[in-house]
Amino acid sequence: MQKSDKQKSGKGLYIAAVAFSLVWIVLGQVVQVTRSFDNKWSDIRLIFPMYLSVPFTADGDYTFLFGKYVNKPPDEKITITAIDEYTVSRYGFPFKRKYYGQVIDKLNALGVKSIGIDVMFFESDKDDLANDARFISSVAKWGNVVNLFAIDKDSLKIKKPIPGLAARSAYMAYPNSDISLDSDGHARHFFLFYPGVDEDLDGVEEKAVQYKTLGMGKLRCSPKCDEARVASLGMATYAVATGKPLIEYEMQYGSSAMTLNYRYPRYRKAHPGWKKPSGETVNSTFRHISVADIIEGNLSKEEKEALNGGMTLIGSTALGTYDHFPSPFSTLFPGVEIHATCMDNLKFNDSLKKFNEFYLTLLILLLPWLALYINRFSLKTMVFMSAGVLGALLVLDYVLLINLYTVPFLVVALAFAIPAIYAIVNKGLNEGREKRWIKSTFGQYLSPKVVDLITKDPSKLSLGGEKRDMTAFFLDLAGFTTMSEKLSPEELTAMLVEYLSAFTDVILKHDGTVDKYIGDCIMAFWNAPLDQADHRRLGILAAIDCQTEMARLNETLTQFAIKPKCRVGVNSGHMVVGNMGSKSRLSYTVMGDTVNMASRMEGANKYFHSKIMTSEATFGDLKDAFDYRYLGSIRVVGKAIPTKVYEPFARKGEAPADVKAMLVHYEAGIEQFYKGAFAAALPHFKAALEALPEDGPSQFYVEKAELFIKEPPKDWDQSFNLTEKG
């Protein structure tokens, strides 16, 4: 009987091995059930050498031991011409077009081969059209500048730049990184050419965006580029530098996405060309060269050498003025560096390649049988052998990465690990030790409460977290960077501690979770880790009370001559929350498009000169609970659908008397304004200003009403386009 049971058990294992091999190929290769973890692992394995180096180096070294074979430095001839915080303090923001013209002239005088501008110019300069002419003149003069247009990824509708720019640019390119983002918001893949549309899902593209279909008239690159798909900013800038036609690159790389081989970041001196060192450092992958330093001729020898014969991308790096895309090495990665990484990969032809599907399938088929083979050994030996096999697979993963191949590591590892674990547990059951082993192991290292939590929801230990409906909150001290230049480091630190501590107390009072501090910015969220049904209301209350606290602090902190203001952005919707990071260092945080929009709304306060901005998604059902006003409808860069935004002041009926008086006139003006009666709206907005002098949104609509009276908008959808990233 015992021998028969063993034979049945053996047959069952063989059948299970065959079934698992076939099912796992479908789940791993077709359904890609482990894709999220594999994406995380692709980042972690690059950072791992740095963590190993921490005991031996001061700041950590990404090239420690085997790290030098998988992590590469950036090419010094690829740079970011940065509209940094110093440039913003010197020349203002948004950056004037005439300065772009000056930068283009200066860069070409320094011997730059090609220039890509990661800024969209959709509307003419409203202050002075000569600024546009100055910019376009420089673009035309040098013939090596790539500019941007926008593509709506759903309708493929083209948004054109200001008149004359397309015809004079070396190429027009698209900036969209969002079309290839992974579910966690990371840009691990990038389309060199805009992908076509497979309308009938037969694997053949029926519609492609080509230069001849853009409708921008005759382009500078015509006719050579007419038949080519439109290129990304990095691809087009690289093509200008090499002089090779885009159509040849399209034939070489096709329309599939490139898997980016990221370069590791390093610390460099900020403004190294200054006679008196600034003492600041910049942690970035590619060298950031300040636009202000270029215009003013304050460049170091190294910066000049990097620009001479090199490629550069002009983009914003000042805090709050650029899109954030996490990279394997940074949670706050300027989007312009994605294009620079693309150019670096193109130059050295070292983007990552997928491992051969045949060999990958063969490996997945064989590994379960290896797990079955070790079942003949003792339980202890099985554990050690399993660890050894998994270690060998880990080494194999690094060897393939060194040779520029990427594999879905978890799919491969679990092809062995799952049947190995099954075999180990099966042997434990046969020997009558499984329950004692589980009890002694978990009872020794975890409390019963934690064990119960893991049992009920193992996903709580996942790096990827979970998707939840939440509220995100961003608060930033307005103009603090400029004002802080007047403070000593000690005063600056003391001031930040006072203000950020007070705001943190307000957020915690309303049961918020403070995610992180980014300089003078606070990021927080609600409805995680605990369920909060009223998370939208709590986020709004925190924003209002932070403004109240701001006024109190400015009055009571008499030791500081500077009296800053703060801007708050609040947005709600689905986002990913959980322990993000590496196996050795985790951070409980949120990410996703909803979070990015909250950050955008904080910055969009500058457009209306408002203090708090919240979206319809957050505020739609809460209007009866607050004194508030409608700010307008905004469309941020990269979004086709506008968002209605509001500014709450206080709980219902608790707004100050001057605010209530202002709101009466403001709301009357808004009603007339959006009826198209701009002349009738103007007196109301002026009356609102009289009731509450220096009220930003009232002044905004006064200016808009005066403008629209003179030049009524055509085909206006009653939304304001925020054409600058922020």
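[next item in queue]
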Amino acid sequence: MHELLQQGFAYLKVASRYKWWGMATAWIICLAGWAFVSQMPDQYKAEAKVYVDTRSILRPLLHGLTIQPDVDAQVRLMTRLLFTRPNLEKIARMTDLDLSAKDEKAMEAIVNRLKGSLAIASARRSNIFTMSAEDSDPQLAKRLVQAMLTVFVEEALGEARRDSDTAQRFLDQQIREYQRRLQAAEKAIEDFKRKNYGLLPGQGGDLYTELKDMQVKLEDAKLALQEAIDRRNEIARQLEDEEPMFGEFGHSAGPYEARIQELEARLSELLLKYTERHPEVVTIRRSIAQLRKRQEQMLAEGGAEESLFSEGEGAALNPIFQQMKIALSEAEANVASLQARVKNYERRIRKIQEQMDARLRVETELKNLNRDYGTIKRNFEALLARREQARLSESVEQNTDTVKFRIVDPPQVPSKPSAPNRILLSAAVLGAGFVVGFGLTILLALLRPTFVTVQQLREVLDLPVLGSVSMNWVDRVKRRKWREFVQFCGACAGLLLLFAGLILMEIKGINLYSINI
């Protein structure tokens, strides 16, 4: 650390040989810089503050009935779109700046000038916007801020109305398109139903349900047919065992009683092998019941049976035989009817199976048509509802103020310039002059190095140093050195005094720009 300090002092000692070069450079830079700063034109800044109230009592009342735009986002977007070229040209026309533009290049220069001189800022978490404009003419700065306020309000309100009009036109266009598509879909379904009449799912029931019902009916018919056949066969078998005529010594109730006993014996045999629901068991029980009923009728009439036995030559017709003949005929007719029903069901099932492909194709195509029609109809109805919401929203925007602009601080003609800050700039010029002057002395010391100490000489030449001769300053040389030091300090003090005078003049408003005006 000690060696670094020694080296730094050595460089400063060498640089002191070129101190007048540094001082001259500092004077030149300061004088040129102060002259430039002093003749800089004054800039006046006009400001205005506006509060944007986006709250409205209608918003909660019309929630769900109207479209609620994000007014805050629209206003903040307008703060960014305010400095677009069309808006800047509008501001130029409102402030008569466009009168000086003779061609497109001059208009471009005016737009660029406005883009650099206009500004808008917003406070955080509030809708207070500060608009400002800088110009050498204070009256023009005020007009620029007033024009910014006008454009901002017009664009913020007009943007919402333009969005509403654009949405209305888009919805009307889409509704017309969907109405055309809806009519085309309805016509397609109508033509398809007319073309495929008789094969539609709604005509005769669903295909699978109809086929399943028909198969169930066929199974029931087959079961009924089998029962009828069994009953017919049983009646035929019983008829073979029955005598068509009674002998002359028959008993009055003997034939019925004998037949009932015979059937009960047969029933007992069948119950050993089958259940009560067996068709033959059911048939025998029905026959027994009919015989008992007839026997009771004959006994109630009294003597009717004896008259039957007295007819002819000692013989009479067997009424049981006649009844069984009639029952057999009815059973055969029932069998024929059930056979016809089974054949009809089988034919209808074959017809349904033959039409299976056509019915499936028609059903699939109809589902596709109905699905497309349903989608178009839902979208059409949704668009109608949205259009009504848009119309109500537009009516609310036209008849009420959804956004209110309140000018908190109107623009005023600035009385004092806001820029440039000549005191700060002059201080910066002074500091730059001293820094550049000192830097020049260091640069000259590096370009023209001088050995100051024996150690430096030994390290650079890498040779042994036998000794050194000290300088013995005489009085004349000391006085001259002292005069040089006083002169150098006076030059520095003069530069500082000149800076103080410039600051004092600036405080009083005296500068080259004000003198030229």
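[queue empty]
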